[in-house]
Each structure stands twice: as C-alpha cells, then as structure tokens.
Amino acid sequence: MSVLAFGLNYRTAPVALLDRLAVPADDLGKALDDLLGRESINEAVVLSTCNRVEVYAAVSRYHGAMADLRDFASQWAGVAPDDVAPLAYDYFEERAAGHLFAVATGLDSMVVGERQIHAQVRQAFKAAEAHQATGRLLGTLFRQAMRVAKRARIETSISAGASTMVDVGLAAAERALGDLDGRSVLLVGAGKMGGVAADRLAARAGTLYVTNRSADRAAHLAAKSGGHPLPFDRLGEGLADVDLVVSSTGAGDSVITSADVAAAMANRGGRRLVLLDLAVPRDVDAAAAEIPGVTVLDIEAVRTLTDAGPTAVVVDRARGIVDEAAASFAGWTRSVQVEPTITALRGRAEEVRAAELERLSSRLAGLDERERAAVEALTKGIINTLLHEPTVRLKRIADFRGADLYSSALHELFDLPGDEPPDESDA
Fold it and tell me: Does an H or E element contain 46, and which?
C-alpha cells in the first residue's frame, strides 16, 4: 500500500466550495465509511478545518484511488467533478508525507507557524483511529507527523509569536469596529477556537458572553474566562446586546441566520454589529452582510490580513526538518512493501526444510527426542543463516528504491505465493 493525499485549501479553492466540502464532526463517521467503502482505499483520515479539507488515504493503486477521491469530493460537496478537479491537489508517497508534515508544522497554514493546526491534525487522526479507519500505514504516518511538528517547534522558532486565525480575525474586527477594549462580545462555540478567543478577550472585553449547543461547555468556558454563559436558544437576544460576535462552531448549517440578525438590529438603536465568522462551513448566513449596520468578516476577509510570519531562514530550517522526515518515512514504507516477499521467501524455505525432513523420516526414526530437537535446530539455523544476508540486503535496497526488481525476481525464481510487488509505473 502507498499513501495518497488529496484536498483543497485556502490557496486553491474559494470559501464557498470549502463550505460545501467541509466535514462537520457529526458527519465524520459517514465520510470515513464512504471512503473505506471504495475499492482502492484501505485506510483514511479526513482533516477538515477552516482553511482546508484533505483526505489522507492508504491505497492499493494510485489511479483507482485518485478516481475514488475525486468522486468522493464531488459527491460530498454536491458539485460536478469538473468543479472540484481543477482546484484540488494530490501528493503520493514521499510527497504526501512531506505535505502532511508541513501542514502539522504550520508551514502550509494561512498564518505560517500557527499552533492550532497541530492539534487539529492530531484530532483528525484520533477521530479516524477511534472509527477504526486507520491501520499500520496511516498510524505510523500521523504519529510521525506529531513528532515532526514537535521537533520543528523545539529546534526552530517557527511557532514563536505566531498569530492564530483568531488573532488575525480579531485584528480584522478591530479595524471594522474600533478598539475592542471595553466592548461587549459574544462567543458562539466553545471549542478550541472559542477557547483561544476567550483567552484573547477575557482581559479586554467589557462583558463576555459564551453560548454553545452544550450548555455545560459554555458554562465551563465562561467560568474560565470570567464571562457569562448564555443559553443557546437565547442567541438572538445576545446578538441584540453585544458589539462583536465571534462564531466558530462545527455545525453543518448556518447558526446565525439573517432573520436573527435583522431582528437584533431592530433593537440596537443604530449601533453597529460585527460578526466574525471563523467557521467552515460558515456559521453566519451570507445574507446577513446585506443588513444595514452589520459587518460580516468570514475566512475570506480574514485572509487579506495575514502577515508574513516567521523569517525565511526559520521557515527554511523547519522545511529541512520536514523534508528529512518525509524521506525517512518513504524509506520505511519501501521496506514495508518488501516484507511480504521476505515472508514468502522464508515460508518457502521452511516448506523445503520440512519436506526434506519428512523425506528422510525413515532414516531419522532412531533419533531420540533430544537428537531430533538438535536436527530441528540445526536445519532451522542453516535456513536463517542462509536467508539473513539476502533479507538485510533487500531491505537496504528498498531504502534507496529499486526493490521492486529484486522482489519480482525472487517471486519468479522461487515461485513464491502471493501477489508480486506493484509496478511503480502505475503511479
């Protein structure tokens, strides 16, 4: 099997398409079942954030898997394949590993070096693992991604002082609304982004409200940040009272409707309202932006304010760590691919050994138990010694590519059972 990464992100696709393609937490199981039900996909992890929707898959054949992934994306988004294909990217084997490591490290983020993506990658893997959608290949890949991201943070300053999407969004809100100090703020959603927003606003907001579908989570975040919990069914009242709304739920549909906003504006005495929507799919109904006195800032608007982030030197150092790890992972996967050949070769040798002992059983009939055990140990030792060096050499060759030729030759020469190694030309 090989690793294939397929996706769309903030660089390649408009927010409207990312909205349609996004996989809310409640629908993740359905998406994973869909992927695993496809012929060429054996393992899958879905990474769906405000800036990207990506599928990492362990696949049996490249072209078949690419067709499966394109079909999945178009069906999930409810759009024609031709609307997805030109905007999507795909990476295979070493490049797929390198892409994931860059994503986890923050090198591929809108805000270079952001820390939140590391947690999002970990959560995507844990969710897929809990759904039994991962195996040895993706399990090894994602665990290494976590190690690579940690190493990059320790050995470089890639994350030092890096802004988060929340920081950039709040900067955009401040440009639209003015100084946020003393303002009344409503947080809609008590997840990771809501938690970051609460940390940033706790000391600045005059009044901070938190609402969430789970009242317990809203109460917990409100208590932690010195705010006030607001029942989710009173969201409309909150809109009427505050200056800024920061929304970041994982809902699949709009949480803040244009009707709610219009009703709130009728009771605000002309005060402006800024809605900072950091969710994908978007939490705020697009029509709300047409209501007088309302400013809607979504991910598309926030993108224009992202800064350069870490220096080129820091980015290059982090990129070097990523490239080194990707090459190491690729070497491991090539070694794994020759394991069936090694197993088959050892199995054939054992068959020959057992057959020879059986053929000579009449001559060995007079051996006692201790002598028979000695013969067993001797013949197994000969097999192990004979195959040790070829096994080591085949694994070493796999690390530097070219193992397919040797594996195929072994299958042919020894008539080994099982499938021969895949032809890399299929990629």
Answer: strand 41-48
Task: Compute CA distances 238 → 127, 183, 217, whole Å.
Answer: 33, 13, 17
Do residues 359 and 416 touch, judged by C-beta distance below 8 A?
no
CA atoms of 291 and 366, how far apart (whole Å): 99
User: Roughly how many angstroms between the first and final C-alpha of the chain, as a whole number?
Assistant: 12
Of 50, 185, 235, 296, the active-site residue reads: 50
Among 392, 387, 384, 394, residue whose Cα is nearest residue 338: 394
- Whether 191 has a pLDDT exceeding 90, the answer reads no
For the residues 340-348, what does the mean pLDDT come to? Answer: 83
Q: Is the pLDDT of residue 162 over 70?
A: no
Task: Answer yes or no: are the C-beta atoms of 185 and 245 closer than 8 Å.
Answer: yes
Asked whether 314 and 156 are in contact (CB, 8 A), the reply is yes
Residue 83, class by beta-carbon neighbours within 10 Å (0-12 exposed, 13-18 middle, 19+ buried)? Answer: middle
Is 427 considered catalytic here?
A: no
Backbone angles phi, psi at 321, to 5 degrees: -65, -45
**Whole-angstrom Cα distance, residue 316 to residue 302?**
26
pLDDT at 424: 40
Strands (E), 93-163: none
| Cβ-contact 427, 93 below 8 angstroms | yes
Chain position carrying tokens 């055990």:
373
Whether the ω angle into residue 281 lies within 30 degrees of 0, i.e. cis, is yes
